[in-house]
Amino acid sequence: MKKLLLSTILSTFYFLLPPSFAHAQSIDLSVTPPVVEILLAPNKKVEQTFSLTTNNNDLEITPEIHLAKPSDSTGHIEIDQKPIVPSTLPLTIKLSGPNTSPTLTLEAASSDVSQDVYLALVFKASSKDDLSTSTAIPGISALILVTITSDGILPINLELKDFELPFIHDSWLPFNTNPFLENKTPIMIRPEGKYEIINWSGKSVFSADLYPHLILGDSSRKLQTMVDSLPQSFVWSPKWSNIGPHKIRLSIRTQGGTKLSETEKLLWILPIRALIILFLLTIIISRLTRSK
Known about the structure:
There is one protein chain. The protein is mainly β. Helices cover about 5% and strands about 55% of the residues. It has one helix at about 270-290, and strands at about 1-5, 10, 20-25, 25-30, 35-40, 45-50, 50-55, 60-70, 75-85, 90-95, 105-110, 115-130, 135-150, 155, 160, 170, 175, 180-185, 190-200, 205-210, 220, 225, 230, 235, 245-255, 260-270. It starts with a strand and ends with a helix.
C-alpha cells in the first residue's frame, strides 16, 4: 500500500455526473456548484454556499442533506431517500441562509482515522394550486464529497481489472479495451496515467492520456481517455503497416506524478481476414487452372 501526501486543504469542483439541471412541465432548476470536493482536517471547519436558479418564483424550495454513494462503475451516484441522521456521521452539519442560496457548514470531528463522507444537498420543490393542494415537482441536488484526514496522508490501494487481452487481433478491425480500476480503500482518489500501444521496433503507434475520473472509496471506475476534453473508450484502428507483436502498456500515477502501477500485455496484430481471402483465392485459382 502506498501513501499520498496531501499538503493543503482545498475545495474544488470535478466532473462526476453533475446533477446540475432538471426540467419538468416548463420548470427549470439548476444549482451552482453542482459538485464540490472537500479535503478536511479533524476539528476544522469549511463553508460552502450553493445557489439555486429557477424560472418559477412561486416554487416552495426546501433544502435537505442526504447521504450519497456510488451506484456503478460509470460515475453514477445513488442518493438515500431519507435525510441523514447527523449523530451517525463524523461531521457536524449546519444549513443556514435562504432556501435558494443556503450556506453549508461542515466541521470534522476529532479522529485519527482517514475516512470519506459523501453527501447530497437536495433541493425539494413544490407549488400550490388554487385549491391549496401541494403539487410535487422533481427536485435537484448538489454533491458534497468530503475526505477527513488527520495527518494529510491517505492510503492508496488500486487494482486493475478486466485488462485481459486476446493473443491475436485482426488488423482489419478496430482494437478496443475496457479496463476498470478498483479503489480498495474507503478514500476517494483521482488517478492519472497513460494508455500506449508500442510496436515491435519500440515505436509508439497509439498514445492517450487517461481521463482523470474520480474514484470514490470502495468503488471502481471504467478507465477512459480524453477526446476534446470528454471521456471516451480506448479505440485504436490499426493501419496496414501495423503487423506483428505489440505491447499494450497502461500506467497509473497520482496527480503529483508518483507511479502507482504499470501493466504490459502482448498482442499480435495479424491480417487474418486478408490471409483467409488470399487462401480462398489461391484455392479457387488452383482449381480453375486444373480444370483447363
